[in-house]
């Protein structure tokens, strides 16, 4: 039976190979800590927001005002998108040895026959110069998965950041939005995937982080 990996698991590998190995071999799992519920709540209402525009055949203002989105539309296969957005299903690829890679997207744009990944991010403060870079591998992997499922994708993807701006007298919170276009390299995703499998097939790395030392 093969390994089942996700972008978050591969991110852990990049951060600490020992934590990754111990987790995947079910020896030990790094404590997850408290995860704020606000980003999940934002993802949920943003998907509803985007669905409303998709059903009308329109782009929301966050996108239609951006020249990078010219001649694009929201992916309108609602049933398929619902599967791709589901954390327990998502988009998956299984190799000949039974190793599975899967990930759940936030949304998909379409330009002609090509798909473009759109990922929402909620932040409490303004973007830094390198903020988007932290998510590049995640976007590589989503595109890799789509292509493994016989879909054509563009050589770029989008990150859509929402940052709180002010609270109105009525209590409504206004957000600033930033749409960042990211270059995609699916070869990078495949290298990360193969590196993870090679690591898991070997011995547990001796050097660890402050979390897994001594485990």
Radius of gyration: 19 Å
- The percentage helix is 25-40%
Number of structurally distinct domains: 1
> For this entry, what is the oligomeric state of its chains?
single chain
Percent strand equals 15-25%
Shape: globular
Furnish the topology, listing elements before pairings.
Blueprint: E1 4-5, H1 7-15, H2 17-24, H3 38-55, H4 61-64, E2 73-74, H5 78-85, E3 91-94, E4 100-103, E5 107-111, E6 114-122, H6 136-148, E7 156-167, E8 173-183, H7 186-201
Parallel strand pairs: 1-4, 6-7
Antiparallel strand pairs: 2-5, 3-4, 5-6, 7-8
Helix pairs in contact: 1-2, 6-7
Question: What characteristics describe this protein?
Answer:
215 residues; alpha/beta; 35% helix; five-stranded mixed β-sheet
Describe the structure in your own words.
- With 215 residues, this protein is of the alpha/beta class.
- The chain has one domain (36-192).
- The chain has 7 helices and 8 strands; from the N terminus they run βααααβαββββαββα.
- The strands form 2 sheets. The chain has a 5-stranded mixed sheet, with helices on both faces.
- The radius of gyration is 19 Å and the shape is globular.
- The model has no long low-confidence stretch (mean pLDDT 94).
